[in-house]
Design goal:
Elements lengths: L4 H14 L13 E3 L7 E5 L5 E6 L7 H13 L10 H14 L9 H4 L9 E5 L5 E4 L4 H4 L12 E3 L2
Helix pairs in contact: 1-2
Length: 162
């Protein structure tokens, strides 16, 4: 069953208000779905008129309801004054939501935490020559560019597989 994002957004807004968290009164009630989002689950966009639009990755709708609620809570907290980033005020509000509703709102969420399939393309793979542990990477990082500078936790050397 697919989650109803607009209903879930209204629920999260009510929860935040019940805790006296100063969320914006100008949050649009319709969640915009992003069909192309791969690495991001949600986004809070302040529009020119001062209203906030909450965006959610469409693939999150097939996840457990708790994953949608948690992501929506994360984004709603960005509508609070001084909370456009993940600073101390945002973290304090997230802590209150977590304590009251059992969320695990944090700066970032992973596919595993949210119960969503990880669909990021693996473009690079680094492998330990001793234990065989694999380090898949989407982007060309320092580890991928220079695996000889790093060691696996087992102490083995690393090499680029592709």
């Amino acid at each position: 069953m697919m989650n109803d994002p607009d209903r879930l957004l209204a629920r999260v807004i009510a929860q935040a208000r019940a805790l006296d968290i100063p969320i914006s009164p100008h949050i649009l009630p319709q969640v915009q779905l992003n069909r192309r989002a791969v690495t991001r689950f949600g986004c809070c966009i302040r529009q020119a008129d001062g209203a906030y639009r909450i965006e959610l990755a469409q693939r999150l709708l097939a996840a457990p309801e708790a994953a949608c609620l948690q992501t929506l809570a994360h984004e709603v907290l960005h509508t609070c004054p001084g909370c456009r980033n993940h600073g101390p005020r945002w973290k304090a509000y997230a802590g209150r939501m977590n304590a009251a509703y059992g969320y695990a709102v944090s700066r970032t969420g992973t596919c595993q935490q949210l119960g969503v399939e990880d669909i990021r393309p693996i473009r690079h793979l680094v492998v330990c020559t001793r234990c065989g542990r694999q380090f898949p990477r989407t982007r060309l990082s320092p580890l991928v560019a220079h695996p000889e500078r790093y060691r696996c936790t087992c102490g083995g050397t690393l090499r680029r597989a592709y």
